[in-house]
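Structural prep section.
Before we set up the soaks we want a predicted structure of the protein with adenine in place, mainly to decide which crystallisation condition to try first. Input record follows.
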Amino acid sequence: MTHVVFKSEQAALALLAALPKAELHVHIEGTLEPELMFALAMRNGVALPYKSVGEVRAAYAFDNLQSFLDIYYAGTQVLITQQDFFDMTWAYLERAHADHVVHTELFFDPQSHTVRGVDMGTVILGIHRACQQAAAQWGMSSALILCFLRHLSEDDAIATLLAAAPYRAHLVGVGLDSSEQGHPPDKFARVFAKAAAQGLKLVAHAGEEGPPAYVWQALDVLGVHRIDHGVRSMEDAALVARLAAERIPLTVCPLSNMALQVTPNLATHPIKTMLDANLCAMVNSDDPAYFGGYLNDNFAAIITALSLSPQDVLTLVRNGFEASFIDDRLRVQYELQLDNAMAQWTVQHG
Ligand code: ADE
Ligand code: ZN
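Run finished without errors. Recording the tokens verbatim:
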């Protein structure tokens, strides 16, 4: 099949607006915009090391994952009450709704809050209440994934899972994030086994900065259902073959990879190669307040940089629904809406 590119930038933006989408890799703390960070700091009497919103944004120039994480964890200090977690989540959901996101699976990092004396229930109930409001107002579906911070001990992760037990009904799964290098997945074998025994879905960041060996471990030792990022898997042909054969989803975040210098630029980003290798890759925003773009911004950037076709975009969006943890009835409903939207767009712009 010949590669058909978009006829215009306007046609690409119209497609992004038309297609219902799922977002599966977004850290809710990474959606905290500097304006809200300042408002919450004021409300809670928390001192920030910045004088203005402009100064915050100027600090967002990263050399690698760790240089980002240091600033990201500092930003979480303004989150104290249930209302704070609600406000942050609601702001993200409104923004996602504007991008025609109909389903979202939100990561949260409870250890970055409980270490400051914020209760697990405050975190989960605040986020959950915003999700409920989005369901009531727009019919948006969502789910929460509790992430363990891999730079901390496995015992700390086990205590965190235990603290979340009263809120088990609000969680769909557990994940693994934070500093990847030097903290391989197998450090968390026991806590992932405990989570699996509770019927929680399993995901892990792997192959973002870490080597392909960490992706193998996430699959074989932790038994994850999805890999977050996984872009370095492309260095290992046997791993690519395995990911393709088993349709293991990879939640890819292009603007994040560029901001954290995982890839030197978007023109060399592997997401198109991943699609060509038949991998179940999809697009996500990771920490949109820090990396310069929400979901449609990520799509628009890779459409331009990699000359993606409308069919490539459809495949990426379809993969998002395939990889999501929704039930099959809802999945079929979303896929039907997706096909209808694509057909309509094709009539107008194809
Ligand atoms: N926490 C928030 N964003 C992250 C990322 N991109 N990688 C690892 N941990 C994270
Ligand atoms: Zn992430």
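Observations: The mean pLDDT is 98.
Flagged for discussion at group meeting.
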